Amino acid sequence: MYTAIVAVENNRVAKYKEFETADAAQAHCDVYGGFPYEGSYSPDLYVDGQSVTIQPEQETAEQVIARLERALDRHLDEVANSYRYESIRTMVTYATSEHPTFGPEGRAAVKFRDAVYAYGIQKIADCTREVDPDPIPTEADLIAGLPPITDYFE
């Protein structure tokens, strides 16, 4: 039986969990709920006083695609929210509006959405191809490469 103490520092708040397990490898699943570790901080796992490094499971191409697509969707919705729309889906419905504010915003949103997805699809294809793939971008790097919606106003 192993005694494992896991110390995770997230946003400067340390959390500790102590438990006993018959299998040291099981400690990761006990602490992280069986899901691969994700985050910007590093977990420290000590089994019977010995530091153990836990390597996160490698993401499959499908997981990379899904994660990056969610990041693009979140970004589109955040931009739409900044213009007081519920989501990008709502914002683009105003593309045919004759209102002097809503119409141009809706038309810009359509062009912006198309540009975001075209860029994102290409970046995802570049990092998931089988031969000589590009490094997988972080979500922040993916978003940083996007043009601003203001580029699409008439």
Describe the structure.
- This protein is α+β, with helices and mostly antiparallel strands.
- Helix content is about 45%, strand content about 15%.
- The protein contains five helices and four strands.
- A four-stranded antiparallel beta sheet has the order 2-1-3-4, covered by helices on one side.
- A hairpin with a 2-residue loop joins strand 3 and strand 4 (about 50).
- Helix 2 (about 60-80) runs antiparallel to helix 4.
- The longest helix is centred in the C-terminal third of the chain and has 27 residues, at about 100-130.
- The relative contact order is 0.11.
Write the layout of secondary structure elements.
Blueprint: E1 2-10, E2 13-21, H1 26-32, E3 44-47, E4 50-52, H2 61-82, H3 88-92, H4 102-128, H5 139-144
Antiparallel strand pairs: 1-2, 1-3, 3-4
Helix pairs in contact: 2-4
